[in-house]
């Protein structure tokens, strides 16, 4: 009897070891590579043969849905169904970058953005990590990646001044997240959305986030009586969120914001992660539209809208 138990344990160990080996091999050689771009004319694309997707599934009340199986999902690229090579549904740590707008247009809103950042840190789980950057005429590191709920003292010295490099900030956040080992990544933007000085376009910033597999969540910090400028700013923030699979939050204060942050942390920890090798192997640099479907009614799926394929010679 003892011998049989020992054999059973050995085979179980062998089985687990082989699984871990295959997973590490897949992760090392197949997950998307880092972002390569030097200027705004260079297209950021997915250079790996494997496309990795993080998807949030919510019910009619907007609450994350867990427990779904791989065979309940279908992934389509440009309308054609793809074979899923990797699937993960377990709760897992995430890496996030908080971007605080401290430009001149945020006068009176910096303290609210600071409070928002603190609220987000308070909701982190033990293994989640977050970095904080502020941006005005340039992008500056406030606090490097950490799982600490404490916030750096320098954040209390930030003042509203200068221009707004929102696009550059999102681009840099994407580059930093691309270096992380966590498969689930997010960019939290606290801004009035009015970019006035970036060297990179909004499209370039969005492509960087998509290439890094980062979901963008945008919180509108603009004043209510800003008129047409507010609508234009909101449109920019909505675009970043919707195309990366994130959420746009129109109200920056009170209970609504605290609840929104709570939901962001919850969904980042319970996303579904997929990996597939595209049937279309052309390296033409063109946009590939992605759609995920689930075989269960009344559910909503959010993920990035697609990616730019690698391009020969780039």
From TrEMBL:
SUPFAM superfamilies: vWA-like. Residues 95-264 form the VWFA domain. Pfam families: VWA_2 (PF13519). NCBIfam families: acidobact_VWFA. This is VWFA domain-containing protein. It comes from uncultured Pyrinomonadaceae bacterium. The lineage of its organism: Bacteria, Pseudomonadati, Acidobacteriota, Blastocatellia, Blastocatellales.
């Amino acid at each position: 009897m003892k011998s049989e138990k020992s054999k059973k344990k050995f085979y179980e160990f062998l089985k687990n070891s082989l699984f871990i080996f295959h997973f590490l091999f897949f992760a090392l050689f197949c997950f998307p590579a880092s972002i390569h771009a030097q200027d705004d004319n260079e297209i950021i694309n997915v250079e790996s043969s494997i496309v990795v997707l993080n998807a949030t599934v919510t019910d009619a009340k907007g609450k994350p849905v867990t427990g779904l199986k791989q065979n309940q999902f279908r992934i389509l690229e440009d309308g054609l169904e793809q074979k899923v090579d990797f699937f993960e549904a377990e709760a897992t740590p995430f890496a996030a970058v908080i971007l605080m707008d401290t430009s001149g247009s945020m006068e009176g809103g910096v303290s609210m953005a600071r409070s928002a950042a603190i609220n987000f840190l308070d909701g982190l789980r033990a293994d989640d990590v977050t970095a904080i950057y502020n941006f005005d005429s340039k992008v500056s590191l406030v606090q490097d990646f950490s799982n600490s709920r404490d916030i750096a003292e320098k954040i209390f010295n930030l003042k509203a001044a200068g221009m707004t490099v929102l696009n550059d900030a999102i681009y840099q956040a994407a580059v930093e997240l691309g270096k992380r080992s966590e498969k689930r990544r997010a960019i939290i933007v606290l801004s009035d959305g009015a970019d006035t000085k970036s060297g990179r376009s909004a499209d370039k910033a969005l492509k960087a986030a998509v290439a890094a597999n980062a979901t963008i969540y945008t919180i509108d910090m603009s004043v209510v009586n800003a008129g047409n400028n507010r609508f234009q700013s909101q449109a920019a923030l909505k675009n970043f969120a919707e195309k990366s699979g994130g959420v746009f939050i129109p109200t920056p204060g009170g209970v609504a914001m605290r609840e929104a942050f709570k939901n962001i942390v919850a969904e980042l920890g319970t996303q579904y992660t997929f990996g597939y090798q595209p049937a279309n192997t052309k390296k033409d640099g063109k946009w590939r539209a992605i759609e995920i479907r689930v075989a269960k009614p009344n559910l909503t799926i959010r993920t990035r809208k697609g990616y730019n394929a690698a391009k020969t010679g780039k």
